[in-house]
Amino acid sequence: MSEAGGRGCGSPVPQRARWRLVAATAAFCLVSATSVWTAGAEPMSREEKQKLGNQVLEMFDHAYGNYMEHAYPADELMPLTCRGRVRGQEPSRGDVDDALGKFSLTLIDSLDTLVVLNKTKEFEDAVRKVLRDVNLDNDVVVSVFETNIRVLGGLLGGHSLAIMLKEKGEYMQWYNDELLQMAKQLGYKLLPAFNTTSGLPYPRINLKFGIRKPEARTGTETDTCTACAGTLILEFAALSRFTGATIFEEYARKALDFLWEKRQRSSNLVGVTINIHTGDWVRKDSGVGAGIDSYYEYLLKAYVLLGDDSFLERFNTHYDAIMRYISQPPLLLDVHIHKPMLNARTWMDALLAFFPGLQVLKGDIRPAIETHEMLYQVIKKHNFLPEAFTTDFRVHWAQHPLRPEFAESTYFLYKATGDPYYLEVGKTLIENLNKYARVPCGFAAMKDVRTGSHEDRMDSFFLAEMFKYLYLLFADKEDIIFDIEDYIFTTEAHLLPLWLSTTNQSISKKNTTSEYTELDDSNFDWTCPNTQILFPNDPLYAQSIREPLKNVVDKSCPRGIIRVEESFRSGAKPPLRARDFMATNPEHLEILKKMGVSLIHLKDGRVQLVQHAIQAASSIDAEDGLRFMQEMIELSSQQQKEQQLPPRAVQIVSHPFFGRVVLTAGPAQFGLDLSKHKETRGFVASSKPSNGCSELTNPEAVMGKIALIQRGQCMFAEKARNIQNAGAIGGIVIDDNEGSSSDTAPLFQMAGDGKDTDDIKIPMLFLFSKEGSIILDAIREYEEVEVLLSDKAKDRAAILKDPEMENEEQPSSENDSQNQSGEQISSSSQEVDLVDQESSEENSLNSHPESLSLADMDNAASISPSEQTSNPTENHETTNLNGECTDLDNQLQEQSETEEDSNPNVSWGKKVQPIDSILADWNEDIEAFEMMEKDEL
Ligand code: DMJ
Questions:
Q1: CB neighbours of 591 closer than 8 A, spacing ≥ 6?
Q2: Among 49, 249, 589, 907, which residue's Cβ finds the most Cβ atoms within 10 Å?
Q3: Cβ-proximal residues to 488 (8 Å cutoff; 6+ apart), any chain
Q4: E-assigned strands of 576-677?
């Protein structure tokens, strides 16, 4: 998401859309704040900004150069294996692959970045390559949304800047709208997707065969995400207005109109997924992140680009609802569209990081600063924003595919406030990318931000968006060869000229304000209070908003706790919380009964909870029961997750890798625990026999080294003992299933042999075949390959400084064995009988099969006996509430005091709903919970 930085107040603007923008968004005049900054964070010198700008250019060259050299014409670069990702030739990653249409995606997505980064010559070459090489008629099923924002948007952005350059008279003199012709051809290819009664597009289309034909292999889907159907208008309207073919804009408008009609009328929120035929909400949870994000973005930007008032009205209606229900500063939490006071989950996804940028465009700076600050603290903790994180800022989904949303918001907040703090934030982003994501062949996505391990993936949006925002953050006007403020950014950061607002605008006429008087910007000097009043008078404005939040992440408490405390304050008895529940406590059993929840003891020792809402004592008790069940479901899946050992890292430290390549490794339930000991560093050596199933015949080769062993034929523990006896200091087992990869397979844990494994003192890690072959290839090429086995990748600077250091600091193996045996006794006694065959694909310690079952009108959840008593260490609510949990608590408490509905006992008590309608609502909620269980970004 994004919008071009605004022109400083006072400069004349020839486009009507821009005036509208200024009128609609106070923040848009804020660019001038950069020149009025007088205090706060230390200003950054021009030299330093230039240095950082040059660093961004160098990083772009590294990413783009490696893509062009090793991957082009493939869609994307695989930066670990240094080759192109070609759909069908790699194991499927599911929906993620729907962005790949064999149309040189990264090249097209990079086109306008080249011009922004002042690489005009390279742009000219790139356009020629697109025209010469790209085929849009492939028999591939692609995502309509991704193809629109990345490919159609990329072609239109390229065209927009090609005609700008041509007009300047130096470059692109040969250009004759060829990119636009390609865009039009692609636009027509996407149109069959709209052949539904609702006008909402099918989520996928076959580029060659369209929809529904037998050859198309698509067209049977019934659902799409809201963002998927609601993120078309900018590209489609631009295509219509550039070409005069109105059909594209008409289709995109129709889809938006339908979504608007289907909004939940009492909350004014939209769900995450919708049935494209019936218009029913399939997922009724609602937030500003995954699945919805750019729908909101496009409503506001459609108003900016097209000058159609109805888009602004819709946006404002939704925005009010978002601020009322979803925004719980500094958090943005998903809620239910029908019960918007009820949080739908206890975690946030990384995509919502665009939202502060959108708030800048809207002119609502305070919450933008707050959310951005919270996100920055999460980043400082993990180096990157994990794909999802909980309300108490723990990692929920650990991957990070180099998403640009946070950089985007940082850029817009800098434009709005002029606060050099945001330049420092940008500098940190650059440093982290270079330190942790840069690999010899590009930049690799983080597989796990906790371990620093990589994934063989560099998404095209990294080039389309990240480098643009980072470069623009440090650039002065003269560093860019055109006026960026004449353009609007699409959600993929492609540039569309604002002059489109007055071109071929037949469709939007009916909705635009008929009276329009041309004014120059000086008329709006005082419509920008944030610039003209706030900042000059209070240059510490942004800092004063950030200050109370400065420890928000470190001193956080789980949000649910606050609400319990609120209940106490209001005098009402707090509802029973899932984490406090004890199946042996008669008082708890009584409460369950009141809530309509019955307890069933299963034969295997587990207990199952089932809720029959109709058996609850009252509708309030039934609602409490529903919430209790929801919490129990979350708790149960959280506990299952926590029982799993986290992944480990194998980092290649020798030349030419120098710690840049980090492979995701599976842990072992035996041997040295790398999370408790220093990492193990050593050269690798292949063992003989390669499976390590008998005494090694080459002990001299593995002595003092890390032995590589092939999976199979005997127990993992047996392999470990054999290499240990030969003198190895560690072992890496490489999967024998060809093509397996941590990109596609779940984390694999090596189980013990069902016996005492305390005798195994060395660390053992598991690599899937793809990651293993990276090491084997390295041995072939460089012979001497040194690796580091650890729980988290090590800082490269330290690796390079003192390569010997690590071995010296290792505890002696004697000490290790003593420490280790203590740990192992407790862990092996619990888990020894779980997986007793190496060949078993069981990769978790979970002895309790997922037994969650949700019957039609019932809520049900199962918990294991160990979960029946509350864990005293988890019972930290009171301590935290009385103690450290200060800033966030206070804010959240203050906020909820102003929102009387946030206390369930208060709000639910007020509504007297007929039981039928409650049951119908619950049914919807239950479906939503079920969907959330399967939830993916
Ligand atoms: C981009 O493709 C677009 O910004 C999209 O709207 C959602 N996010 C990805 C990058 O994270």
A1: 576
A2: 249
A3: 3, 4, 234, 301, 304, 305, 495, 496, 498
A4: 597-601, 607-612, 648-652, 661-665
Q: Which two tokens stand for residue 221?
A: 């889907």
C-alpha–C-alpha distance, residues 811 and 310, integer Å: 68
Rounded CA gap, 486 and 473, in Å? 17
Q: What is the mean pLDDT of the chain?
A: 80
Helix (H) / strand (E) element for 776: namely helix 769-782
Within 13 Å of residue 615, how many CA atoms lie on the same side as its CB?
14
Beta bridge partners of residue 406, listed in sequence order:
none
* 446-448/442-443 β-pairing: unpaired
Pair of tokens at residue 791: 């729980």
Which residue from 788, 709, 721 is spatially nearest to 752, judged by alpha carbons? 721
As a whole number of angstroms, the distance between CA 581 and CA 393 comes to 24
pLDDT beyond 90 at 175: yes
Ligand 1 and 461: CB distance under 6 A: yes
What are residue 234's phi and psi, to 5 degrees? -65, -50
**CA distance to 334, 494, 597, per residue, from 270 (Å):** 11, 26, 31
CA separation for the pair 320, 302 (Å, rounded): 18
**How many CB atoms within 10 Å of residue 539?**
19
As a whole number of angstroms, the distance between CA 102 and CA 782 comes to 34
User: How many Å lie between the centroid of ligand 1 and the Cα of residue 454?
Assistant: 20
Contact present, 791 and 674 (Cβ < 8 Å)? yes
Tokens of 583: 């199946």
Is there an atom of ligand 1 within 6 Å of 334 CB?
A: no
Tokens 């889809």 belong to which residue? 255
Digit-coded pLDDT (tens) for 485-518:
999 999 999 999 999 988 777 665 545 544 444 4
Question: What digits encode the pLDDT tens for the residues 287-326?
Answer: 999 999 999 999 999 999 999 999 999 999 999 999 999 9
Give yes or no for residue 148 CB within 6 A of ligand 1.
Answer: no
d(CA 528, CA 412): 16
User: Which pLDDT tens digit goes with each residue over 805-822?
Assistant: 444 333 333 333 333 333
Structure tokens that stand for 152 in this block:
């159609």
Site to probe by mutation for ligand 1, drawn from 142, 403, 411, 412 as the one with most ligand atoms within 8 Å of Cβ, is 403
Residue 72 has a CB neighbour count (10 Å cut-off) of: 18
CB atoms within 10 A of CB 711: 24
Report DSSP state, residue 812.
P
**149, 296, 300, 468, best to mutate for ligand 1 pocket (most atoms within 8 Å of CB):** 149
Task: Say how many Å lie between the first and final Cα of the chain, rounded.
Answer: 17
Distance of CA 712 to the CA centre of its chain: 36
Helices (DSSP H) in 710-749: which residue ranges?
716-725
Distance CA 501, CA 515 (A): 16
- Residue 625's nearest CA partner among 937, 910, 904 is 904
DSSP letter, residue 291: T
**Strand order in 273-275's β-sheet?**
223-225, 273-275, 281-283
Q: Which helix (H) or strand (E) holds 205?
A: strand 204-206
| Residue 189 DSSP symbol | H
Alpha helix segments (H runs only) across 203-308: 226-230, 233-243, 247-262, 293-306
**Hey, which bits of 427-584 come out as E strands?**
438-439, 442-443, 446-448, 453-454, 487-489, 495-497
Q: Would the CB of 491 count as within 6 Å of ligand 1?
A: yes
Which residue CA neighbors atom 3 of ligand 1 most closely? 492
Residue 599 tokens, joined:
């307890």
Handedness of CA 565, 568, 572, 577 (dihedral sign): positive
Query: Tokens 């300047």 sit at which residue?
Result: 168
- Nearest alpha-carbon partner for 626 in 597, 606, 599: 597
